[in-house]
Amino acid sequence: MFRTIFLGALAAIGLSSATLAAQLAPFKDDLFAYPGIMKTADGGDYTVVDYNEMRDINGRDDVPELRVKRRYIDLAAKRMQKDLVVTTASGPVKVMAAGKIDPGASVITIYLHGQGGNRQQGMNDFTFGGNFNRIKNLMVLNGGLYLTPDFRDFGDKGVAQVAGLIAYFKSQSPQAKLFVACGSMGGSLCWGLAQDAEAAKNIAGLVMLGSLWEDKFIGSPAYKRRIPVFFGHGSRDPVFAIDNQEAFYQKIRSTTKGYPVRFVRFETGNHGTPIRMSDWRGVLNWMLSVSP
Questions:
Q1: Taking Cα atoms as reference points, which of 163, 210, 156 lies closest to residue 183?
Q2: I need a surface site. Which of 87, 142, 167, 190 has the fewest CB within 10 A?
Q3: Beta bridge partners of 205
Q4: pLDDT tens-digit profile, the chain (292 residues)
Q5: For residues 193 and 190, what is the distance between their CA atoms, to the nearest angstrom?
Q6: What's the pTM?
Q7: What is the 3-state secondary structure (H, E, C) of 42-79?
Q8: Which residues pair with 49 in a beta bridge?
């Protein structure tokens, strides 16, 4: 059963102010800490993390890549999870939500899936080592909201739908910092949103997980606002070459001194490794501290 939300109903809703989340409180930090730091550079903005499939997949999952061990997850957040339909100017958007759906969310995180995915991927508690369950719980426990939508494509139509979704939930919780995380091909939507002046006003950070690069980001409305960007990438990624992504990270750094950008390289990691291994709390707390 879907709960349908209409943008036109906003005028009838009394919007309440969100309590700004200064920092996210911990959730299973010991289990999700990086297993080993091999190298740091750029004043700590560049980090190489030791990754090992036997330890970080086989040792972490009951069924490798399909079902994480129970201690990595907490299913209590499912009680605050709903399937919604938000009607935007670009058409209806199906979205799964966990956390404070009503006005007043302290922080909002949106995950955009890659090619072949859907809105259910980012709400799956058991895959990717339980890391989606962690971001879900981080939002719920901190009075925030976690969203995973479907969208029509990875081009202009999809960008417009996600921009409409962002506009709606930001109008519900105007003081909440809103972060958009993009996995793999979903990154084309992140870069498209960065080019959208209205969407860029509502975004406080972009999280790129095993994703692509976009030179047009430099000079975009999001770039001009100095929206922080995080890159997580596996060194053996066969889809998007890490050399290109690292070069783009360095280009951002060299174009504007002090631009808030970080890169975590998962040594020997594959395409999906950043989704499994990136430290959501560490990334978002950094963004909360530097976002406009």
A1: 210
A2: 87
A3: 179
A4: 455 554 433 333 233 333 456 899 999 999 999 999 999 999 999 999 999 999 999 999 999 999 999 999 999 999 999 999 999 999 999 999 999 999 999 999 999 999 999 999 999 999 999 999 999 999 999 999 999 999 999 999 999 999 999 999 999 999 999 999 999 999 999 999 999 999 999 999 999 999 999 999 999 999 999 999 999 999 999 999 999 999 999 999 999 999 999 999 999 999 999 999 999 999 999 999 999 9
A5: 5
A6: 0.93
A7: HHHCEEEEECCHHHHHHCCEEECCCEECHHHCCHHHHH
A8: 37, 266
Determine the distance from the C-alpha atom of residue 245 to the mean position of all C-alpha atoms in its chain, rounded to a whole number: 17
Q: Supply the DSSP string of 152-173, one letter for each residue.
A: S-SSHHHHHHHHHHHHHHHHHS
Question: Reduced to 3 DSSP states, what percent helix, strand and coil does the chain have, rounded to the nearest 5?
Answer: 40, 25, 35
Cα–Cα separations (whole angstroms), residue 286 to 12, 14, 196, 200: 36, 32, 24, 19
Can you tell me whether residue 253 is helix, strand or coil?
A: helix
